[in-house]
Amino acid sequence: MMGRAVQDEHFKAIVVGAGPGGIVALKELAEAGVGPVVCLDQGDGVGGLFRGGYDGLFLTSSAAFSMFSDFPPPDGSHSAFWTKAEATDYWDGYATRFGLHPLIRFGVTVGAAELRPQGGWRLDCGGQTLTCDHLVVATGNNVYPHAPDWAATANQVEVMHSADYRDATRFRDRSVVIVGGGESASDMTLEIAQVANRTWVSLRRGPGWVVPRMRGDLAADISTHRGFWCLPYTCGGRVSAELIAADEWRGRHSPVLAEVARLNAKVASPYGIRGIFGTKSLGLPTAIAQHGTEVVGAVTEVLEGGRTLLTSEGRRIEGVDAILLATGFRSRVAFLPEPLRTVDPRRMYKNVFHPELGAALVMIGFARPTFGSQFPVMELQARFAARVISGARALPSTARMTEVAAKDSATLTEQFGPTGERVRGLVDYPHYMEAMARLIGCRPRLWRLALTDPRLWLHVVYGPMQATQYRLYGPGAKPAEARSILMAMPVSPFNHIVKAGLRETIRDIVRLGPLWRRLGQRS
């Protein structure tokens, strides 16, 4: 694919991709004094893969989490969930605010990146060559659709991957099987159920942990705070039983919440909400309660070219007209050398650096948090990478990075089980954020805040655990600006999640648990 002419130049760092991960990486590199630096993108504007998303796409994290740390949304809009257009407008405004547009070259496709014998990279960009010392890949994880093996035998019905979904029009008055239970799958299921003749949702290992986007006037993810989420994940099973009971109580007057409780009770992980990804959408329970959608097990056999499907629990689904595969994507970067093209975040140091290549190759945005949001994760990854590339922070040895990656992988396998083995980028949001902040040196000092600024402490512990909290102290700190932003954030009401966290904290104190647990920090 030909882009516009690009002169042969050498850069300290090249960022590939101008989506949210790419622009925050570019901004952090520039602020760290790394230069010359450039960002390449084959599209025509900021936003990356989001620009081509389906028509009804909107973010599953609220503005409080979707924002970057030092570019807040307008006051009072923290509970908004941005549409595709609103998100790209925000990122474009971010690029303008920090002077990034002159550093971005649109319409440039990276055909291949090769390691140079003398170190660094050579990039083939449509007949032009660029070289750099450090290559930052921020191309996104939703590029190459994944489909189950059986899908190829469903040749007598329409089969579509969610990557090609735009709206539900083509499914009107048809019998449709949706495969997958993530957030996009949940939203699409509801759109389709409203117009289809009949719908089934096939789940291999049950749903993720279903939560609403809103609780009253506040975004539900405001409750993703330290008071609950920094408790040890091993308490997840006990806490989850309390959360299900609360949803069952509210479900007495709400069929949708009653379905939420039933779906979450099916989560197989012994750690409940802490052992599975979150599905921050009421699409699936609403489709069940209001449109008769049925949940079935994994597809085990395809008959009549897909017109009939057999499932793991012995169900026989007949009269199928169409199948929508919301089965995720393969982590792959096609322009990297062959051994590096398939991305396994678990083999990388903190999901960012290949141990064998060190700072030469940086991967931004290949970690998927279970709750919280990917945008704060990307920002801390970018801040850490910028410190390494600028020389302010050294990476451990290859052997040590390999050892840490293996240890982290074992912990994630214990916590997430088969789901974590399948979704290799899955990370525990609070643990990962705190681990990255420890490497940067920017963790909030909770004791100091409690003693010197208790109002701010309340916002840090019971407000959304998002990126601005990591601008109070350490490298890259902007304390006055950060305090102003954090104090404008909503604080969680005294709800069932706060109560569950307090009960666990009291249990921990009674058991004489370590002080770091009582503070809601996990080492």
Can you walk me through this structure?
With 523 residues, the chain is α/β, with parallel strands linked by helices. It has helices at 20-31, 63-66, 84-97, 183-193, 226-229, 236-250, 255-265, 283-291, 338-341, 374-390, 398-422, 429-440, 446-452, 454-462, 479-487, 496-510, 515-518; strands at 9-16, 37-41, 104-106, 112-115, 121-125, 128-137, 144-145, 158-161, 175-179, 198-202, 209-211, 214-215, 218-219, 278-280, 294-296, 299-303, 308-311, 316-317, 322-325, 329-330, 361-363, 368-369, 426-427. The strands form seven sheets. Strands 1, 2, 3, 4, 5, 6 and 21 form a seven-stranded mixed beta sheet that branches. A hairpin with a 2-residue loop joins β5 (121-125) and β6. The protein is globular. The relative contact order is 0.14.
Distance from N terminus to C terminus (CA atoms, Å) equals: 47 Å
User: For this entry, what is the oligomeric state of its chains?
Assistant: single chain
* Portion of residues within helices: 25-40%
Q: What's the shape?
A: globular
In short:
The protein is 35% helix and 17% strand. With 523 residues, the protein is of the alpha/beta class.
List the helices and strands and how they pair.
Layout: E1 9-16, H1 20-31, E2 37-41, H2 63-66, H3 84-97, E3 104-106, E4 112-115, E5 121-125, E6 128-137, E7 144-145, E8 158-161, E9 175-179, H4 183-193, E10 198-202, E11 209-211, E12 214-215, E13 218-219, H5 226-229, H6 236-250, H7 255-265, E14 278-280, H8 283-291, E15 294-296, E16 299-303, E17 308-311, E18 316-317, E19 322-325, E20 329-330, H9 338-341, E21 361-363, E22 368-369, H10 374-390, H11 398-422, E23 426-427, H12 429-440, H13 446-452, H14 454-462, H15 479-487, H16 496-510, H17 515-518
Parallel strand pairs: 1-2, 1-6, 2-3, 6-21, 8-19, 9-10, 9-19, 10-15, 11-14, 22-23
Antiparallel strand pairs: 4-5, 5-6, 7-20, 12-13, 16-17, 17-18
Helix pairs in contact: 1-10, 4-8, 6-7, 6-16, 7-8, 10-12, 13-14
